[in-house]
Structure formats: structure tokens, C-alpha cells
Amino acid sequence: MGGYTRTKAEARDRREKVFALFPRLFERRDQIAGYMSGGEQQMLAIGRALMTDPVLLARRRTIAGPRTPSSSIESMRSSSACATK
User: Fold this and answer.
1) Confidence class for position 23, pLDDT limits 50, 70, 90
2) How far is CA 77 from CA 48, 81, 85, in A?
3) Three-state SS for 65?
4) pLDDT digit string (tens) for 63-73?
5) Under a CB-based contact definition with an 8 Å cutoff, are residues 29 and 58 in contact?
6) Which of 6, 44, 51, 69 is buried deepest, with most CB atoms within 10 A?
7) Could you tell me the pTM of the whole model?
């Protein structure tokens, strides 16, 4: 969705950053979104949002998966850094 306004090289670079942030999406890249788990669908939604190079990304809860509070905070910082680059 957000990749359509970018050149192919820019879209590829953004996609690689999203895959680096969410390695599980890379593993599931050929799977239809409707067959992904709820947590994977949330990662996909956040990844799609990051493709648009957002100024602000608001979310209600942290990313699903076994995380400690500190790793959730780190995940949010990483997605913020990805969005600003």
C-alpha cells in the first residue's frame, strides 16, 4: 500500500527495514494475510504503516509475542527509528 508512492529501490529498502524489524514477516512473506495469526497480522499492519514513512504511528498495544516490558519499549524505539530513516 505505502510502497506504491515510492520508487522500486525505495520500496525495496523500506521492505528490508520492515523485515529486519519483524523477521517473522520475512518467514511468512508468501503466506496470505488471512491465514496468519493475530499477532502476525498486527505485525503486518504495522509494517504496512511503516512503508508509508509516517510522521506519527499510534498503537494501542505492543506487538504480540513473548516480550518483556523492556523489549516492548525497544521494539517501539526500533519502529520509530525505522520510520524516521
Assistant:
1) very high
2) 17, 6, 13
3) coil
4) 555 554 455 55
5) no
6) 51
7) 0.65
Q: What is the mean pLDDT of residues 18-24?
A: 91
Q: Which of 61, 44, 63 is nearest to 1 (CA)?
A: 44
Residue whose C-alpha cell reads 523485515 in the numeric block:
19
Q: Which of 67, 28, 32, 7 is nearest to 78 (CA)?
A: 67
Helix 69-84 to helix 38-50 angle (10° resolution) is 30
Q: Is the pLDDT of residue 47 over 70?
A: yes
Assess contact for 1 and 33: CB atoms under 8 A.
Answer: no
The number of domains in the chain is 1
User: In which domain, by residue range, is 50 found?
Assistant: 2-84
